[in-house]
Amino acid sequence: MQDLNNTEFRGGQGQVLEPETYRDSIGTMEQSGKRKWVFPKKPKGRYTNYRNIVAYTLLVFYFALPFIQVNGNPALLLDIINRQFFIAGQPFYPQDFFILTFGAIVSLVCIIIFTIAFGRIFCGWICPQTIFLENVFRKIEYAIEGDRNKQMKLDRQEWNTEKIWKRSLKWSIYIILSLIFTHFMFMYIVGYKEVFRIVSEGPFEHFTNFIVMILLSAAFYFVFAWFREQVCTLVCPYGRLQGVLIDKETINVFYDFNRGENRSKWRKGEDRKAAGKGDCIDCYQCVVVCPTGIDIRDGQQLECVNCTACIDACDEVMDKVGLPKGLIRYASEKEIETGQPTRFNARMKGFLILLVGLQLLLGYLLYSRADMEVKFIKPAGSTFFVSEGKITNTYNFTFLNKTNENKIVTIKILEPQHGEISYSASSKIKVERDKITKGTISISFPEKEIKLSKQNIKLGVYDQDGELLDSYDSYFEGPFNIQF
Questions:
Q1: In a 10 Å sphere around its CB, with 0-12 CB exposed, 13-18 middle and 19+ buried, how is residue 366 labelled?
Q2: H or E, element range at 222
Q3: 2, 202, 213, 331: which has the fewest C-beta neighbours closer than 10 Å?
Q4: Residue 4 and residue 49: Cα distance in Å, rounded?
């Protein structure tokens, strides 16, 4: 058997590795299986500033959106319990489920296509897990416990007054934030007015809701106080898809091994090129700043969320030692290997065309969506009756007003001609916005107009301006006549 202890292993970029290579384990776990807690250094730099702008903009949007009204409706409400959905102020009902489903599919395809072209940029820039952890909870941790070295020192020391006070303060703030975030999350389901009402009336009046909120808040606290980056490295299904979505032309955060190897410590005044050394000075700043605990120099890894913290850390070091920036940068593996910059190739064009096509189809479905959905159904077991030379059928109607205003509508027979409508109430039917209106009508035709025992008819519903809102095809029953 080959002696592995004397075998030299090399990574994807040529650097010598230990026999236990980096792909045999994850950066957040010891060889014994015990979790290795990650204490990332506080990032700073150009990309960090950009990410902060994006993150805080999305956080403001998250807190403001439940209170925004569009045409008197919530800008976004996903009331699963009452089966009411409002997106951009437009009401959607179970009858529109196919549109919502298609919209979800388009969003998923958009993420997949974006991942194929630009890697895991979604995770690093707009994923709620990253935003809440890195821009809220981690910021509080830095403010209370200090940067990486101070956090590690605090973690190692005994439970003295300082440690108890700092940890208690941090955890208390985490609990309060978890309650706030979950209450706002609940607003997207039942609306902010309902949440305020439930809170004002107290937990004993809404005990079930109270228990649900406690459980959700506890789960939120658990994720961001303890589980943290393991959501990305162990649980998230999107992260597991990276192996089948990305290839050598996918743009990711990459270490330029051609330029960086052979890595060696920095010596002032040394001609590194003449000495056969690369630009990487092996300072480990890209490692200590990583929120998932990996070494980006080992190559593309499943744990990398493309947060760009390593780019900023490396650029800062390159500035200090007078070497060009970009040793770690956004690039494709092919670009790193060949030195040719990534171009807008045919594959990206094809993905873009597919994405635009899906979005156009979704736009068409939304545009062609009727303002009102109508149905005319014959009551179960009902039949026709003949009186004074006329055949009469009874119908139950259901009108669903999908607009933001009340409407007064009338019913007309479109096909065949010469029919009459009798109403159980007024011929002008009021249909309130976002409501379902039901009623009964009777339709009569002269006997000579009905040639078949079951004849197709078409009914239309018009608003006060005479505009056709929707039509419905039904059938009309008559006597069974045998003609020779």
A1: middle
A2: helix 207-222
A3: 2
A4: 46
